[in-house]
Amino acid sequence: MASTEDVKSESAVTTIVNLAEEAKLAREGVKAPSHALLSVTKSLVAGGVAGGVSRTAVAPLERLKILLQVQNPHSIKYNGTIQGLKYIWKSEGFRGLFKGNGTNCARIIPNSAVKFFSYEEASKGILWLYRRQTRNEEAELTPVLRLGAGACAGIIAMSATYPMDMVRGRLTVQTEKSPRQYRGIFHALTTVLREEGPRSLYKGWLPSVIGVIPYVGLNFAVYESLKDWLIKSKALGLVDDNNELGVATRLACGAAAGTVGQTVAYPLDVIRRRMQMAGWKDAASVVTGDGKTKATLEYNGMVDAFRKTVRHEGFGALYKGLVPNSVKVVPSIAIAFVTYEMVKDILGVEMRISD
């Protein structure tokens, strides 16, 4: 056994070595990076890349979904996914398929970065509280706890980037024939702020937050729970020698997660989009009983928007654009999850969301 003097000697040597290394870095003008800050930065970068890649891959379907959600029920232009994409291509060309994608990426990149990072931090906090409550240091996150962490992440990310989502919707819906032409993100933000006031930037925020709880929460909960089950049960022989799932399997888990989440939350997404368009005179018009047109319906809150939508167009209007959205969400969520994990691997971050 080492003596007290030996321990003190080793401690002193270690301290001297550490101080010497710090002094050397100082002389060279190099500041040792904070491990925590570096880890946070890598997580944010991975989340941002995942959001940008996944959203650009499905940009045409995203635009068609919004057009279907807000189009005039008395003047139907888009009658489905294939027909709608062909109509956009014919009337606006290839660029029309990606209209609003720059704004969308400008919103989704920080949104995705904040969402993934918030989920990781919320998961850590919830797991810490759960282990203290159960007095079991080996306890793991349950699907319900993952749902809660995902809901927290969704609310934080949605609230932080909501004005960008609001103007993205307007940039996506406007056409070359619209009297009002927003020239870009900044112009749209300043115009809406000047003409409609600060509160208009958060139109539809409540249904968005309510909708993001099941949507993002279920995305994370289903994705991680499916992965966890497949790895532990080794079902269908999908686990490799390193006890990992392949890219195709992870994509399938992400697709299942996206399908479940968006189906549950979709009506709230429709209401959110309509509330964002409310009061905008250049949005899709509504035909009155005398054949004249008027601006889009005004809504006195989320419940009123639900009631008027169902009364004027039927319950099915709450699921307008669901088909292209489903086709979009399946690859989008899958690509986002897998890209996030792959980028973190490339950046050398050991911990993944499932850890």
TrEMBL record:
Solcar repeats lie at residues 38-125, 141-229, 245-346. It is found in: Mitochondrion inner membrane. This is Mitochondrial carrier protein. One of its GO terms (cellular component) is mitochondrial inner membrane. The lineage of its organism: Eukaryota, Viridiplantae, Streptophyta, Embryophyta, Tracheophyta. Belongs to the mitochondrial carrier (TC 2.A.29) family. Its main location: mitochondrion. It comes from Citrus sinensis. PROSITE patterns: SOLCAR.
